[in-house]
Amino acid sequence: MNYCSGEPVRVGDRVTLGGRPGVVVCSIDDGVYTPDHPAPQWACLEAGVMIDFPDFGLIHYTEPESDLLLMSRQP
After folding, report:
1. Cβ within 8 Å of residue 75, ≥6 positions away
2. Reduced to 3 states, what is the DSSP secondary structure of residue 74?
3. Is the pTM above the cut of 0.90?
4. Contacts of 49 (CB under 8 A, 6+ apart)
């Protein structure tokens, strides 16, 4: 999955949604998962990414929302 800007969404990305912070915790598309969100827990979704927002909880995306913005990326 890509952000609306065209950049790929990657695990560890810090994002905002409507000004609320979140972090990408798994990418089903890329087969990359964090220890707290392992593949057996989310691979059944088949596509997309999972983003953890403290204010909203976990949200699964297969397409980005227009106000989902990349704020920083880990090297």
Report:
1. none
2. coil
3. yes
4. 1, 9, 11, 24, 26, 27, 28, 29, 60, 61
Q: What angle do CA 33, 40, 43 make, to 5 degrees?
A: 70
Q: Using one digit for the tens of pLDDT, what is the confidence trace for 55-71?
A: 999 999 999 999 999 99
Q: Alpha-carbon distance 69 to 28, whole Å?
A: 19
Cα 48 to Cα 60: distance, rounded to the nearest angstrom: 7
DSSP letter (8 states) at residue 63: S
Looking at every residue in the chain, the average pLDDT score rounds to 95
Q: Which class for 57: exposed (0-12), middle (13-18), buried (19 or more C-beta within 10 A)?
A: exposed
pLDDT tens digit sequence for 26-43: 999 999 999 999 999 998
